Amino acid sequence: MANQDPLVVFTPSGKRGRFPVGTPVLTAARQLGVDLDSVCGGRGICSKCQITPSYGEFSKHGVTAKEGALSEWNAVEARYDEKRGLKPGRRLGCQAKVQGDIVIDVPPESQVHRQVVRKAASARVIEMDPATRLYYIEVDEPDMHTPTGDLERVARALRDQWEIEQVTCAFPVLTQLQPVLRKGKWAITVALHRTDASATPQIIAAWPGLHETGLYGLAIDLGSTTVAAHLTNLETGEVVASSGIMNPQIRFGEDLMSRVSYAMMNPGGDMEMTRAVREAINTLAEEIAREAGIATSLILETVFVCNPVMHHLLLGIDPVELGQAPFALATSNHLNLTARDLELTALPASAQIYLLPCIAGHVGADAAAVALSEEPGKSDDLVLIVDVGTNAEILLGNTTRVLACSSPTGPAFEGAQISSGQRAAPGAIEAIRIDPVTKEPRFRVIGCDKWSDEDGFWDETAATGITGICGSGIIEAVAELRIAGLLDPSGLIGSATQTGTDRCFAEGRTNAYLIHDATAEGGPRITVTQGDIRAIQLAKSALYAGARLLMDEMGVDVVDRVVLAGAFGAHISAKHAMVLGMIPDVPLDKVSSAGNAAGTGARIALCNLAARAEIERTVRRITKVETAIEPRFQEHFVAANAIPHATDPFPELGKVVTLPVVGFNTQGDGSDGGRVRRRKRG
Ligand code: FES
């Protein structure tokens, strides 16, 4: 390359080099390793290679780009512009040729490794590096004189046109290859999948001509109670539809251990549960594709994150070993499978399935996904990550070490096993405040932004009514009862006499608190009963005890920050969670929400092949702590039963909330029988 050759500078990468006049921009980009996409290999038909040339004086780059620095707009570009429209100033990189010094911007949508914002509130991004990519090829026609198979000529085209060696072909695709080649008149698009960066690529789909209807993947968070899926465009990283359904295995048992027992007690019970969940995933895939207006045949990859019991039942492995020590997994490694292996008939038979690795017998791929999304091992300060669900996954760590455990919280935090509990849906109470003086409640329901004592609330909620309490609502309700002095630290609700309010009423031998009575309009009577308090105490004690166990193992009494993950983690108020003693004491501004971190981890693994390798490495370095056989777990559990805690001080909480000292035990154990005193905690 002579020195007087034109200088080409690419932005945003800053890569630069000199190229002979007449070099296509795509070729220059390839030679410099600039991330510029192409599916058609420079034939001017895919439009993936769009670039924006800039003209003028660029002192930063030491370049003056004059008009005419690129070749004239050509017929291919004109045809594309006429058919599809090119944005003003855009050129096709494979058509525009270098004529003089030039600065060329590669817009995000033309970058293969473009970055996708994960969620509005977070600055973090997912870099696109999908395991499956599209390649357009022109294949030699068969020739009687040099007989070769169609697949061998496809492989040769990939080698000659894309420098991709030694491809293999999934069997279901091979059976369709001949008609596809002939229909495409020997021009086809193939989807090539790699299980890792160095693996042999495999053809997992083929279409006649240029395939233009996209490539999609599903990120599925397979939970004990719900199955949530994000349909993601594998070229752009955009989530095009999200949907969820109930896990039909609930009919075999609400929590994991009852499902394991079902498999133990009923011969063939494991297969019944396997069938149920696979059917549900098929239904979900069809529904979500319909919602997005795409064919299920375009969903070529699925990533699952799930706890170990769900993992085994999805795979068709009897989970019986997970129900007893030493809780042996059939495999803890990641898995690469196909839709056909898992009988996911809604997807193409050759669609690829990736299961994240499990951490241990009780700590699953869902916890691995949280680790991938929240990266505790990259945190300088000590972070406790709690993924709240029917089973809580808990991670504690920093750059030196990461620990993980899972704790059986049960479904109370999701509004199940609560007398007025319900799923988060319009009409459900999601937030509540109880006046400490009048003991009267006011609340907000899903679907209306107003509080119940604001003008317009009753009109706006007339359609849905007030139907029950969801998970975040019950947490707030219990915490507010405690703040208002209606609930004592042991978890007893006071009587009307003890508390001075008729909202507290006797129910059998215990008391309950009335939030809202809609019976006059034919609605429900929404109360918090003593049984509800007990269910929440059990759940929160399990969560706190799991966190404490990890802190013991780490040798610390405090953590620097807490991240609440899980679908409903986003809706939990930090203050109320701490009044309840769900999480260890930290300054309230050190409690943040990560939304559905397991689902985000699944999305990252779906969009980025390197992230799969990273989590496969990371899980090997995570120390697993087994709660089920650890005696200290029981001790922590019992101490955590009090609200907020029997022995652990909560000094940070004490700075913002004054908890009344009350006792409603009338059994003569020395408590003060309801006398209310106030003091500042801490
Ligand atoms: S590379 Fe396909 S249009 Fe340019």
TrEMBL record:
Signal sequence residues: none
PROSITE patterns assigned to the protein according to its UniProt record, in alphabetical order: 2FE2S_FER_2
Record's protein name: Drug:proton antiporter
Domain 2Fe-2S ferredoxin-type, residue spans: 6-110
CDD domains: fer2
GO MF entries: iron-sulfur cluster binding
Pfam families assigned to the protein according to its UniProt record, in alphabetical order: RACo_C_ter, RACo_linker, Raco_middle
